[in-house]
């Protein structure tokens, strides 16, 4: 394999140029205008107290003058790579002139210095940040084989502490227990129930339905009640369905996406849960988040945040002997349940808004948790048939069949 092929393999899935173009598209022509545009792009919903994070300090330098948070250029999630690279260069006294552009040897040394103390994913993020910064500054990024082999050696020295224990997904049993133990006359529990059922059956990311924390509602990213009333469609088999448009997703960005919600003949029906939530939590302002709920103690309404949602679900499950589950467990649990019920992968990929390549990668992750998911209601033969279906899915989309193997 040639060096360029190695580099393309390493950077597969990372569109650095697109990220760079997006970065510069919003940059104004003058420093003053630049600071204003950046400050306006930051969401300031409440006063924030500066917090110092241990291990995040660097040696003062005229090349890195301190600035207030509202004046900083936010380079996506790549800041950690720049920070660690700067700390590394400071520790071995690398001159500023040799840091940009950085030589392949220097970048390889930086990667090797963290071998055994960080995960391969962390290193990838750091290197992507460094490459992004090189592109922004119009300099060349080293892409020869030394860095590739350093990265391969790095992955073999990943510490055990960086591997997370496998978490079970939300199963239909866990979802039913959640429904049975939430108080459907409670404003909060009704909102929690609606989010849980929609996230599971519509294979949603929680961030598409609830806000990350109190005070961080952004109408450009989070769905609000302006989409109401719901438009209910009746299918030929008399099944009721609707869809809601969310303004932003992790993959489509500001184009948003439509979430399809279909009724199911089960207590965990997502459409029934959503309608009940909207009924019991009515008379809330049109620009409030969709899953806001009434708070009688405040004589007003409250936005349902991710931490509140996770805590309420965890409280129910732990009281019933279930482990606490992560928010992503709803998406992967719903996808697994639908696959086991016989939903075709193409339909499920549409439901979860995956492209064929992403969905196949997602299936590989699902396979690793199937032993935690399967119950007596599903036979081993069903799993074998499902594995064969996924192989056919890969062939139909001209994807490598080995991607579906465990």
By DSSP, the count of extended strands is: 5
- Order of adjacent strands in the largest pleated sheet: 1-2-3
Mean pLDDT, rounded to whole units? 77
- The helix fraction, in percent, is 40-55%
| Beta-strand residue percentage | 5-15%
Q: What keywords describe this structure?
A:
406 residues, mainly alpha, 5 strands, disordered C terminus
Briefly say what this structure is.
By secondary structure, the protein is mainly α.
Any overview of this molecule?
The longest helix is centred in the C-terminal third of the chain and has 18 residues. Helix 12 crosses helix 14. The chain is mainly alpha-helical and 406 residues long. The two termini are 25 Å apart. A three-stranded antiparallel β-sheet has the order 1-2-3, with no helix packed on it. The chain has a two-stranded antiparallel sheet with strand order 4-5. It is 46% helix and 5% strand.
What's the SSE blueprint?
Blueprint: H1 3-10, H2 16-25, H3 31-41, H4 79-91, H5 104-113, H6 120-136, H7 145-155, H8 172-181, H9 187-201, E1 233-234, E2 240-246, E3 257-262, H10 270-280, E4 293-295, E5 300-302, H11 306-319, H12 328-340, H13 345-351, H14 356-373, H15 380-396
Antiparallel strand pairs: 1-2, 2-3, 4-5
Helix pairs in contact: 2-6, 4-6, 5-7, 9-10, 9-12, 12-14
């Amino acid at each position: 394999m040639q060096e360029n092929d190695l580099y393309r393999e390493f950077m597969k899935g990372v569109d650095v140029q697109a990220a760079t173009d997006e970065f510069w598209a919003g940059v104004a022509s003058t420093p003053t205008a630049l600071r204003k545009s950046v400050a306006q792009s930051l969401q300031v919903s409440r006063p924030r107290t500066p917090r110092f994070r241990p291990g995040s300090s660097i040696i003062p330098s005229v090349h890195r003058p301190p600035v207030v948070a509202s004046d900083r250029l936010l380079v996506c999630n790549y800041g950690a790579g720049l920070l660690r690279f700067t700390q590394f260069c400071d520790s071995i006294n690398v001159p500023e002139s040799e840091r940009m552009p950085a030589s392949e040897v220097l970048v390889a040394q930086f990667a090797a210095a963290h071998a055994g103390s960080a995960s391969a994913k962390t290193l990838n993020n750091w290197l992507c940040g460094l490459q992004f910064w090189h592109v922004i500054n119009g300099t060349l990024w080293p892409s020869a084989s030394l860095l590739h082999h350093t990265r391969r050696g790095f992955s073999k020295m990943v510490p055990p502490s960086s591997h997370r224990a496998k978490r079970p997904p939300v199963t239909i049993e866990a979802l039913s227990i959640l429904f049975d133990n939430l108080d459907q006359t409670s404003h909060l529990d009704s909102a929690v129930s609606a989010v849980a059922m929609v996230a599971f059956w519509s294979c949603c990311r929680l961030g598409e339905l609830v806000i990350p924390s109190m005070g961080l509602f952004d109408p450009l990213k989070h769905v609000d009640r302006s989409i109401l009333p719901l438009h209910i469609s009746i299918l030929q088999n008399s099944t009721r369905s609707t869809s809601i448009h969310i303004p932003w997703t992790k993959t489509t960005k500001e184009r948003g996406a439509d979430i399809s919600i279909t009724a199911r003949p089960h207590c965990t029906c997502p459409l029934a849960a959503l309608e009940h939530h909207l009924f019991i939590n009515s008379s809330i302002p049109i620009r409030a988040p969709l899953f806001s709920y009434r708070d009688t103690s405040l004589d007003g309404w409250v936005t349902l945040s991710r931490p509140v949602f996770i805590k309420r679900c965890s409280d129910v499950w732990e009281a019933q002997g279930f482990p606490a589950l992560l928010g992503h467990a709803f998406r992967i649990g719903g996808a697994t349940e639908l696959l086991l019920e016989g939903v075709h992968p193409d339909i499920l990929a549409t439901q979860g808004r995956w492209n064929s390549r992403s969905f196949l990668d997602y299936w590989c992750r699902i396979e690793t948790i199937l032993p935690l998911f399967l119950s007596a209601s599903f036979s081993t033969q069903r799993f074998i048939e499902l594995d064969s279906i996924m192989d056919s899915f890969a062939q139909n989309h001209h994807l490598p069949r080995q991607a579906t193997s465990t």
